[in-house]
């Protein structure tokens, strides 16, 4: 792969764009209208986690060569589940109301930023297909990093879905690196807090891909060290390889049959419900092994958990300053089984035990 001619061509083009960054072109009236239309559609679809998540899936189903859109759909589903967990069965008993809001804003901001950067690229690609000619010279007009221009041009010529997916993973994680992860606003209120670090202790950062096999099953992996750009890119490549494997069609089938609501009931109605079944002050026990009639874990829909959030415009700027990211194109992401279901059940039980312990402790105070 390293000596592959298309890869070497891509490397050369990336170096060219480093030396001669793309400038916003002079736009014709037709091009201005197209850019405005893309911005309006993106803004409408970026209203909340549910709308943007379904927009990714709808795009993928019409453009299956753009693998990243399906990966983005599923990762965005997980972001929505994390958002509603903050108002669900366990976390409200472990973190304060302010921490719940801070965590939500952190998740929502990253989710929103990635969509407003990536979705216009997808729409411009769809317009290129419709026109029968590449329109990627317009990418600077919508504020996209110069890193993506040679990558889209390379994809148009070589149709390498895996290389484009890797490029989009690299781009989006770099895009949010300083705007969210290392933004002092979120770093002080979320990333550096004890509650955020407890996520590693509880292994709460699982990314789950449900799929149909008589009853819903799960594959996925756990994100450790979210603050590490390298780890986020690496896990993105791992998740991509897990997704585009023998379970792909079963995952796509599940996603098409289960519209995203933000509730974990979407994939596991035997364990979760969007209506609270436990009594006040009580919580579900042994959730993955509960008997018939036992109360399920409360997991609200996004609509019931959070109102739509109003965002400030993204700060301009291009992260692409050197070729340090190029070695990611040779990572294969293999060696991960994707076995996650038992591990996820352990996480739920850890949370249940933490709630129980806290309740007992305060009774003794």
Provide an overview of this structure.
Helix 4 (67-85) runs antiparallel to helix 5. With 365 residues, the protein is mostly helical. Helix content is 55%, strand content 4%. A two-stranded antiparallel ribbon has the order 1-2. Strands 3-4 form a two-stranded parallel sheet. The protein is globular, with a radius of gyration of 21 Å. It has 13 helices and 4 strands. The protein has helices at 5-19, 29-45, 49-62, 67-85, 97-131, 148-158, 161-181, 184-191, 194-202, 229-243, 248-257, 302-305, 341-364, and strands at residues 206-211, 217-222, 272-273, 297-298.
Shape: globular
User: What is the terminal separation in angstroms?
Assistant: 62 Å
How much beta, percentage-wise?
under 5%
Helix content: 55-70%
Strand order of the largest sheet: 1-2
How many strand units? 4
Class per helix and strand makeup: mainly alpha
Q: Which blocks of ≥5 consecutive residues have pLDDT under 50? A: 360-365
Order of helices and strands: HHHHHHHHHEEHHEEHH
The main pleated sheet reads as: 2 strands, antiparallel
Average pLDDT number: 88
Q: Over all CA atoms, what is the radius of gyration?
A: 21 Å
Count of alpha and pi helical runs: 13
């Amino acid at each position: 792969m390293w000596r592959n001619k298309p890869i070497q061509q891509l490397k050369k083009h990336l170096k060219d764009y480093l030396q001669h960054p793309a400038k916003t072109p002079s736009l014709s009236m037709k091009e201005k209208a197209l850019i405005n239309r893309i911005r309006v559609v993106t803004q409408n679809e970026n209203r909340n986690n549910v709308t943007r998540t379904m927009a990714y899936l709808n795009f993928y189903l019409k453009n299956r060569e753009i693998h990243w859109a399906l990966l983005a759909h599923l990762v965005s589903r997980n972001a929505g589940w994390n958002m509603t967990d903050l108002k669900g069965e366990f976390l409200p008993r472990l973190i304060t109301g302010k921490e719940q809001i801070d965590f939500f804003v952190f998740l929502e901001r990253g989710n929103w930023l990635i969509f407003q950067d990536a979705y216009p690229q997808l729409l411009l690609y769809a317009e290129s297909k419709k026109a029968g000619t590449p329109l990627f010279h317009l990418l600077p007009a919508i504020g996209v990093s110069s890193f993506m221009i040679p990558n889209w041009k390379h994809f148009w010529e070589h149709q390498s879905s895996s290389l484009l997916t890797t490029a989009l993973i690299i781009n989006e994680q770099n895009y949010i690196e300083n705007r969210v992860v290392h933004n002092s606003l979120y770093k002080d209120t979320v990333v550096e807090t004890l509650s955020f670090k407890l996520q590693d202790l509880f292994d709460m950062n699982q990314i789950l891909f449900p799929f149909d096999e008589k009853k819903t099953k799960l594959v996925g992996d756990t994100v450790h060290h979210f603050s590490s750009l390298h780890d986020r890119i690496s896990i993105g490549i791992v998740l991509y390889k897990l997704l585009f494997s023998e379970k792909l069609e079963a995952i796509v089938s599940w996603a098409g049959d289960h519209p995203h609501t933000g509730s974990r009931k979407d994939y596991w109605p035997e364990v979760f419900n969007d209506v609270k079944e436990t009594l006040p002050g009580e919580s579900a026990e042994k959730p993955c092994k509960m008997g018939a009639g036992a109360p399920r874990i409360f997991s609200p829909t996004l609509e019931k958990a959070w109102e739509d959030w109003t965002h400030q415009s993204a700060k301009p700027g291009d992260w692409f300053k050197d070729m340090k990211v190029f070695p990611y194109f040779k990572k294969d992401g293999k060696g991960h089984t994707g076995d996650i279901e038992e591990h996820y059940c352990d996480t739920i039980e850890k949370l249940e035990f933490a709630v129980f312990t806290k309740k007992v402790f305060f009774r003794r105070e």
